[in-house]
Amino acid sequence: MKLSGVREAGKADSWYEGDPDVLSNQLDGFLNDVPASVNNSDLPISGAKVIIAPHAGYSYSGPCAAWAYKCLDLSKSKRIFLLGPSHTYYLRGCALTKFAQYATPFGNFVIDEPVVQELRDTGKFQDMPIYNDSQEHSLEMHLPYIYKRVSQTFSSEEEYPTLVPILIGDNKGSEEKEFGALLAPYLRDPDNVFVVSSDFCHWGDRFSYTVYAQGGDVKNLTSLTYKTRKPTDPPIHESIKLLDQLAIDAIAGGHHDDFINNLRATKNTVCGRHPIGVTMAALEALAQDSSDADKDKYKFKFVQYQRSSLVEVFSDSSVSYASAYAIV
């Protein structure tokens, strides 16, 4: 199928600044606030070809996302795989774009048509409906950041990597492993980088998630109601942090099954759990096939954790954000 058309930057002036000069200065500010080194390594981190970063409005998650993007090593990249969850329609399996280009306020990304066709030819992927593709913020919120980092890395637009956007649907653990195995060869290829789009805990009655760790004990989970207005042992925001830390630890451990089991136990509303799961499965497959004894490879290292607000009472709500990188 021939790709065609341009996916417009539909979230500009709503989720992020539409003026390219204002947006560029904002992203520069976020990136400049990140230290020059992380985990005793200068940034970007050599070989950090995979990141997890949030996808909320930049006023909320932009500073957190900057940590992942400043770690990302784009020096050898020829294409960027962008994996995000579907917010606009229910999706089982995974889906590919039908657009030929993705627009940003800075310029357009060219979609890597040969790779998209390779994936489509496996028979494992659906096509994103045009409307849903255009409205999906889990993909769009990464495009200005990617373009900013690409423009900092390469001297001319002719060198800019192509883009491979993939929506990852509501899949079971075994299905995530199948897609992970399918994407593992692309992850192994030194020409490719992966950007994984996910926020973490969405807490509050409006998200239908009010889980609380009584006494700070994650083995003693309950759901708060309006009758339990303001627990203090611990404060709600500290309980949220405990729940997120369990998910973060499971991801950093590098075992896909552990992450699945964590979500099953806590029901944590990690909206990009399936893109993360597929990527973890791909990394785990590479680790199993590798004789490389480097323990720093094939596992995510988290470098930042933030929340949109610090919840204290039942009527409050918050969304958590985390940034991580993996060396391949």
TrEMBL record:
CDD domains (UniProt xref): MEMO_like
Pfam family, one: Memo
InterPro entries: MEMO1_fam
PANTHER family named among the record's database cross-references: PROTEIN MEMO1 (PTHR11060:SF0)
Similarity remark: Belongs to the MEMO1 family.
Protein name: AmmeMemoRadiSam system protein B
Source organism (scientific name): Xylaria flabelliformis
